[in-house]
Amino acid sequence: MAHSSLDESFKKSLEEDKKKEVIRIERESVIPILKPKLFIALANLIKHSSDRAEFLKLCKRIEYTIRAWYLLQFEDMMQLYALFDPVSGAHKLEQQGLTCKEIDVLEQNFLTYLFEVMKKSNFKIATDDEINVALSGQYLLNLPITVNESKVDNVLLKKYFEAHPFNNLPDFYDKYIIFRRGIGIDQTTDYFIMEKVDMLIARFWSYLLRTLGLEKLISKRSKRHGKRLDPKKDDETTPEAYQDDVYERIRLENMPLSSGNLLSKTLIQEPTFDRIIVVYRRASSDSKPERGIFVKHFRNIPMADMEIVLPEKKSPGLTPMDWVKFLGSAIVGLVAVFSSLQAAVTADLRVIGAVLSTVVGYCVKTYFTFQQNLAAYQNMITQSMYDKQLDSGKGTLLHLCDDVIQQEVKEVMISFFILMEQGKATRQELDHGCEELIREEFNETCNFDVDDAVHKLEKLGIVTKDPIGRYQCVGLKRANEIIGATTEELVIRANQGNITP
């Protein structure tokens, strides 16, 4: 009976979502908890104070050890990037005296390191489906933005993906690649008067096209980005998982507009990509081969406005609706003038002049409205670059390197803690226990990467596996003995010894 009630509740929620526009994104493996907060919270869950001290000591030793594991890999990546830094890389490449083939090999080696670090830091390549869903609507950016493909290289990334195939890559994968991580929500409240008026005009023309059977004339952008992820297609989805993965999009296009809300404030909402990293290279010229690789890092980018992170953007032109206004005004003006000429052989030039002046005035108004929108767009791009760009180049890579270490340490410590508290556990039980701990103690959700965590624990030598596939950790004191004193600890002790009289 309770199961039937749950099914009915879930079906009701699905029916309600039919009236909404929702986006479903796969839950990620990133652990959204600050490392110091995680360590203290886990230690406070341990009963005995002596065990708490041993646990915090183990946390530090594991962090230092994992940092040492990655140090050489990160160092190699940073040295390679020094050759392809858009600011100073060209001079360093010239000093090396390398051949073109040798440089090509180093480029691909750098990309291999970079993509591995992205994966370890839980960044995912934005797929074609995700790009289509993201750009299927509008948020604050209402002008068509495209990339000037002649200014973007299409060889570097194409060569990498030929050697390292990925599924469901976007159409532009050979020119630039977009990594994304984390989902948030952005809300804006405003009057949006001009946007509402444009929406009414767009709806009128859409109705007119349907009436005349001219649906095929709808813009290519609507066709290309019209796909939506359907959260209702998975009949086996549980209500809990469904709620965790669904983000609502509230936009003007789907709102009922009337005289009442046309002049009132309106709330719109758009899911955001919490972090976006864009990788690309500028196209080479005949006189100067381009070897610099751009790595740009952005935060809190609304999905529908994702165009603002695109490289080498073209200045936007008139939208299809602007052209409709121009053509409509011209046709109305010509019809009015022709009717005036037919009404009398000697038509009043003042009437004709008034009609033409009105038509020309409306066209001029449309043009200046576009210029105003263009200025607003340029201001938005400038502000976004200032407010939303976190870093680029070497700064982004350093951030990624530290992020990898933070995530790996958190995965290992949560897994060890669950084994320490629950005893033996299979891989599935450990995965479930870690996700439950994160949800109950920190009110956060993530798709815990248990395989990577177990691999690290086994490599550290503080977890064993029995013949039937269950994992068990050693005691806290024994774990600290196995890892032993790290270089960082010895340095700290030496410094304390110099300070202490």
Summarize this structure as a short list of keywords or feature phrases.
five-stranded antiparallel sheet, 18 helices, 3 domains, 501 residues, two-stranded antiparallel ribbon, elongated, 9 strands, disordered N terminus, alpha+beta
Characterise this structure:
InterPro entries: DUF3754. Keywords: Aminopeptidase, Hydrolase, Protease. This is Aminopeptidase. With 501 residues, the protein is an alpha+beta fold. It has three domains: 148 residues, no CATH class; 205 residues, no CATH class; 77 residues. Helices cover 56% and strands 12% of the residues. The strands form three sheets. A five-stranded antiparallel sheet has the order 2-3-5-6-7. A two-stranded antiparallel sheet has the order 1-4. A two-stranded antiparallel ribbon has the order 8-9. Strand 8 and strand 9 form a beta hairpin. Helix 2 packs antiparallel against helix 3, helix 2 runs parallel beside helix 14 and helix 3 packs antiparallel against helix 5. The chain starts with a helix and ends with a helix. The N terminus is likely disordered.
Summed up:
The protein is built from 18 helices and nine strands. It is of the alpha+beta class. The protein has a five-stranded antiparallel β-sheet with strand order 2-3-5-6-7. It has a two-stranded antiparallel ribbon with strand order 1-4.
Number of strands: 9
Structural class: alpha+beta
DSSP summary: helix tally: 18
What fraction of the residues are assigned to beta strands by DSSP? 5-15%
Give the ordered list of helices and strands. HEHHHHEHHEHHHEHEEHHEHHHEEHH
Report the principal-axis shape: elongated
Tell me the Rg in angstroms: 29 Å
Low-confidence stretches: 1-7, 9-18, 218-243
**Which bin fits the share of residues in helices?**
55-70%
Taking the sheet with the most strands, its summary is: 5 strands, antiparallel
Q: Give the distance, in angstroms, between the N- and C-terminal Cα atoms.
A: 74 Å
**Mean pLDDT over the residues:** 82
Integer tally of domains: 3
Reading side by side through the largest sheet, how are the strands ordered?
2-3-5-6-7
